[in-house]
Amino acid sequence: MVREPILKPVPLNELHPTQITVGMREVAAKRRRWRARHGEKAGGFLGEHMVPVVLGPQNQHYVIDRHHLARALLDEGVKHVLATTVSDLSRLDRDAFWVVLDNRGWLHPFDDKGRRCGYDHIPEAIKDLVDDPFRSLAGELRGAGGFAKDSTPFSEFLWADFLRRRMTREAVTASFEHALEKALRLAKSPEADYLPGWCGPVDD
Predict the structure, then answer these.
(1) Which is higher by pLDDT, 66 or 153?
(2) What's the rounded Cα separation, in Å, for the pair 28 and 155?
(3) pLDDT number for residue 6
(4) How deeply is 40 buried, as exposed, middle or buried, from its count of CB atoms within 10 A (0-12, 13-18, 19+)?
(5) What is the set of domains in the chain, with CATH numbers?
(6) CA distance 37 to 32
(7) How many helical (H) and strand (E) elements, i.e. helices and strands, does the chain have?
(8) How, if at all, do strands 130-131 and 80-88 pair?
(9) What is the spatial distance between Cα 82 and Cα 10, in angstroms, rounded to a whole number?
(10) What global pTM score does this model have?
């Protein structure tokens, strides 16, 4: 028997992230798209963009995808989103909960310098997510055809880390367009062939 997903409205300010960073440039783009849909189409948009969550200790909701959308909607003053519960881990204590999320690929405890951090560094609220310009660059790179969408968890963060090792943060923030041009060249090079969604040239 096919089970229907469990959906319920959840206040955005009660959602907990499972990562430390987002690309704020990508958040800004999602805010613009939301404003373009605002009005009659807003409800339909929210219905089509449900936020997947895991229930954690004390039945709190932990977002495991669509952090950028959640942050964009929060910044736009949206109060609730529809959440779909992927797994109920509410019976676990907090330490065990983080370990399970980590081992299932539902956690990305890396900071804006690409360093792995302790679970206690993950923000309590969506509003406290930190900007990582390289995550924005990776998102723009995929949109420009630099790599293909892939089901690998946190694939954009893997690309962000690849780019972080090859250009400076100052270069990205000083001229995002030039950084994107360089990122496109790097993405098509053989040194990126291990990354998810790589679509560089191959020899016949």
Answers:
(1) 66
(2) 20
(3) 63
(4) exposed
(5) 7-131 (3.90.1530.10), 133-191 (1.10.8.10)
(6) 9
(7) 8, 7
(8) unpaired
(9) 6
(10) 0.91
**What are residue 109's phi and psi, to 5 degrees?**
-85, 55
d(CA 154, CA 135): 10
Pick the closest to residue 111 from 66, 179, 161 (CA basis).
161
Q: Output the CA torsion 127→130→134→138 (10° steps).
A: -30
Residue 136 burial (CB count, 10 A): 27
Q: What is the mean pLDDT of residues 25-52?
A: 84
Tokens for 67?
């952090």
Nearest to 43 by CA among 72, 82, 77: 82
Distance from C-alpha of 26 to C-alpha of 68, rounded to nearest angstrom: 7
